[in-house]
Every structure is written in structure tokens, then in C-alpha cells.
Amino acid sequence: MRMLVLAAAAALAGGAHAAAPKAVTPGSGEVATAPQAGAPPPGSAAANPTGQAAPAATADAPAPAAVQDPTLNSDGSPRMIAVPHVGQPSDRAVDLQAQFTPNGQEAKAFHNHILMPVIVAISLLVLFLLAYVVIRFREKANPVPSKTSHNTAIEIIWTAAPVLILAAIAVPSIGLLARQFKPAPDNAVTIKAIGNQWFWSYEYPDYGGVSVTANMLKERNEVAAGQRYRTDADGPRLLAVDNRIVLPVGVPIRLITTATDVIHSWAIPAFWVKLDAVPGRLNETSFTIDKPGLYFGQCSELCGARHAYMPIAVEAVPVAQFNQWIQAKGGTLPGAAEAAAPSNAVIPQPGADTADATSAAGNTASDAGTPVVNATEAASPSTQRATGNGGGVGNVDQ
Ligand SMILES: [Cu+2]
Questions:
Q1: What transmembrane ranges does the database entry give (predicted)?
Q2: pLDDT in tens, 215-250
Q3: Are 278 and 260 contacting, i.e. CB atoms less than 8 angstroms apart?
Q4: How far, in Å, from the CA of 288 to the mean position of ligand 1?
Q5: Do the bridges between strand 189-196 and strand 199-204 make them parallel or antiparallel, or are there none, so unpaired?
């Protein structure tokens, strides 16, 4: 039974967002990297102070970054556009999201082709047995009940059959579980995700301390004039963020999570990744993204009043583009030789506790000038807001 529960929990973990609302206009991007199909997002040029702010955000970097951010258009709008049904929930969908990591594909197949048939077969068998007993042995049809209390053959069958079913399920289940938490190889790209009430900040410890702070983008009617708001190019409502994190495709990613205040959880359904972010602890998992694209997730551990408003957006790009993005952010590549082929590089892992100290400063440093909801809220006590939900904070009644 325990195995079944474990396996079912693992299988269900990726589907938590299937019912989340989504607001993608049809045709907003048939091609993931379509450069600004249609009209440019309103306000992106005039009201997007972050667009060209990447060099300024890393003012403490050795030299101003001369590399253009490969993920942005010249007007600062995102180059990669959200594609319906990829890396995000779909309207009325029942199945798990399409998977873009090897573990995810294995888990989805396990869920759809092993667990579901077994569950359906057992449910139908039990339903049939119940119906048979109810009809065949009702008082009218069977006025004198049997006094039989033991039947060795049937007792062996109803003990052995469930054991065999659970054992058969356990074999792929335990293997999958182990693969999800297999330590990343030495050539993995490390990203540290830090949960904050209520936004995510990220660090790339092997790339010169590049850090990114991601706040949810509000809707147009929720921001003051001149401030940046969500467009369909950014992604679906409640899932789009101002600063996406960028990860390379085809390279193992070592994800480390922690938190500054309460327990959060970093989750991307399309990656089959959900990892709690616990204050004072480092959790680790690894995954490899198969395809370039834009993948969305949400905090998945109830963490306070704005728990629903700290989305995650990952932009998966080819390695060369990832390296260019790192340089545009003022970061450094682990080595010149490794820049050409980082998948062969051995990346040393720095001490984890030093990275913690920089997380608090990350928000102000990289987001100067943007309408950050949490910049001030993060420092204030949250108990008052749990009911009031903060003045001027959008989406309070959603
Ligand atoms: Cu959270």
C-alpha cells in the first residue's frame, strides 16, 4: 500500500497546475522564438525600465557588460514567447502536462500506462464484486445464508494478488524515485532558487555570482501609468514574471533550493520537479531539459497571503545562448575552454552558506527601477497582511 501511495503521490505531483487559469491569446506565438510576431507588446518600450537595465543591474560587476542580452528584443520585450500547451496549463486539460525532461517523460508514461490501467482494473473488479454480492446474495434471492467462514484457496489468492501487484508497481516506482534525486554530475549547471515572501530569487554560483529576482507581472489595470505590466508575450496571467531565469538545454541542471522566511516549494510541472525550499536548509535535485522553450510553475507550498503570486518562469535556451546571457548579466563563464563546451567542464561547487548572505540584497540590486511589489514587503512583518493582503497589492480578490 505504501508503495502505491508513494507512486501515486509522485505521479500526481506534476499535475497540480492543470486547473490553474490561463490567459494566452491564440496565435500569440506558434514558434517559440518568433521575434515579435504581430504588434509589439503595449508598453514594452515605454514602460519597461528593466528591458535595457541588465548592465546597470550588475553595477558591481568588474566591467559593464558589452554583450547584448540574447533573451530580449532591442525594445526590452522578451524574445521567447509563451506557446500554448507547452510548459503551462491548458484549459480543461485532464492529463499531466507534456514533459520536457527524461524523468518527466518516464514518470508520465508510468502514470498513464501502468498506474492508471492498474487503478482502473482494480476499481472495476471491486465494483463488479460488490454489485455481484449485493444482487446475488440479497435476502430475497438467498433466504438461507451460508455459514462458511474460511476458504483457504481464496484467502491465498486475495493475499497474494495484491502483494504481486504492489511488487510489480514498486520496481519502476522506486527506480524513478531514485533517479529524481540522483546527485547531478560534475558538469552540471548549478542554480540556487531562494524562496521569499513572496517572490523567487536565483543565484548562479558558478557564473560569477549572477543573480536574478523574479516578481510576478501584474495586469495592465493593476499598475500605475508607466509601470510594466504583463503582456501575452510574457506568459499567462499569474504565471508571467518580470525576470525569467535562463537555463541551458541538454545540460544537467543541479537545482538547490532554500528560503529566507518560511517554507516554499519550487515546482515546474513540465520538468517533473517539485522541491521544497526550507529556511536554513539546502535541498537538491537535478534534471535535464530536453527542448528549448518557456516553462512555467508556481510556488507549491502554502507560504502566506501571496503564495499564489510568486510564479516561476524558466527560459530554456541552447548552451551558447545561455553563455551569452550570463555575460550580458555581468557574469563570468567558468573558463574559456568551458565556454565552448561547458558540458565537458568540471565545475567546482562553492560553499553553500556564503551564497545565502547575498540573497537578501538580490532583490534591490537587480530590480532597481522596476515596480517590485515585494521589495518593501519582504522586510516587513507578514502577520498583518495575512488577512489584509497589503495595500495596493493586486489580485487580492482573485
Ligand atoms: Cu511560496
A1: 114-135, 156-178
A2: 999 998 888 888 888 888 888 999 999 999 999 999
A3: no
A4: 24
A5: antiparallel
